[in-house]
Amino acid sequence: MAMGVLLLMHLQVGLGLGNGGLWLPTENGGTKWALLIAGSKGYENYRHQADVCHAYQIMKKGGLKDQNIVVMMYDDIAYNPENPHKGVIINKPNGPNVYTGVPKDYNGNDVNKNNFLAVLLGKKSALTGAGSGPNDHIFVYYSDHGSPGYVCMPSGGNLHANDLSQALKNKNAAGAYKNLVVYVEACESGSMFEGQLLPSNIGVYAMTASNATENSWATYCDTPEYNTCLGDLFSVAWMEDADARRPGDPETLGQLYDIVAKRT
Ligand SMILES: *[C@@H]1O[C@H](CO)[C@@H](O)[C@H](O)[C@H]1NC(C)=O
After folding, report:
1. CATH number, domain at 215?
2. Residue 231 pLDDT > 90, yes or no?
3. Could you read off the pLDDT of 83-96 as tens digits, one per residue?
4. Residue 259: CB partners within 8 Å, gap ≥ 6?
């Protein structure tokens, strides 16, 4: 199990941390952490857990250690009776098995908002081991359904924007990261960060699949035999960009935003 919290990317300039930076060492000795969470369960929601498994592969390729990656997913897809290829999860047609090596940090009903917030805050009462420190880089990625002001969890109630916002502010006040980047794929996901929910002075950069009033969209829904969608549009946009990038080929968050926005 990964300890405490979380991320990942190497700061380029200002808030510009590139996915390419995944392959660079942190210059200040900070640790890169990732917290990856799928908020759904059920075969019809195959795509969210596929997204999260894919994100795990990107973190690994970027050099993060398992002890610094926390994966929260219900884990009912790989061996779901409806899955035509047992033990395999793909995130695009004919794609690689992204389930390979995915750690079982939090599965089933342990995927809930209380555990998510505890992991985010590195609460030692809820976890073993140390949390993140002031030089650390943290990446948080969420994929699932949402509505104005909240995103879903497979159990234990929804995660509300106020609670996430307060957790980020508390974590900043605790000096528990240098930079934190959070990506959220969900309908109306912009509502998780708008206005005072995300102050500009806490070192957090958020990118969402949609604004506060629009849907986010599934993709890769026509693959024969699957009868479900394999990915989400925003998620595969940032992840396939990361897949295509070579080590030492950095990109700022702003550049990535432009690429993802255009494709999505
Ligand atoms: C949110 O997205 C919708 C649909 O694309 C668009 O019509 C609307 O103007 C956007 N709202 C803002 C505040 O940008």
Report:
1. 3.40.50.1460
2. yes
3. 999 999 999 999 99
4. 237, 241, 251
- Measured from the CA of 211, which atom of ligand 1 is nearest? 1
Structural domain of residue 168, as residue ranges?
4-263
User: Is the predicted pLDDT of residue 153 greater than 80, yes or no?
Assistant: yes
> What pTM did the predictor assign?
0.89
Please report the beta strands in the chain, taking only residues with DSSP state E, as ranges in sequence order: 11-13, 16-17, 32-38, 69-72, 137-143, 146-147, 150-151, 159-160, 179-185, 204-208, 218-219, 231-232
Residues paired with 182 in a beta bridge? 140, 206
Neighbours of 3 (CB within 10 A): 19
Q: How far is the CA of 216 from the centre of ligand 1 (A)?
A: 12
Length of the chain as a residue count = 264
Catalytic residue among 53, 152, 187, 229: 187
Which atom of ligand 1 sits closest to the CA of residue 213? 1
pLDDT of 26 over the 80 cut: no
Report the pLDDT averaged over residues 123-135.
65
What is the pLDDT confidence band of residue 209, given thresholds at 50, 70 and 90? very high
Which residue puts its alpha carbon closest to atom 6 of ligand 1?
Answer: 214
Residue 148 alpha carbon to ligand 1 centre in Å: 13
Q: How many domains does the chain have?
A: 1
Q: Examine the pLDDT at 120 and tell me if it is beyond 50.
A: yes
Residue 11, pLDDT > 50, answer no
Q: Is 211 in the pocket of ligand 1 (CB under 6 A)?
A: yes
Tell whether the torsion through CA atoms of 70, 26, 55 and 164 is positive or negative: positive
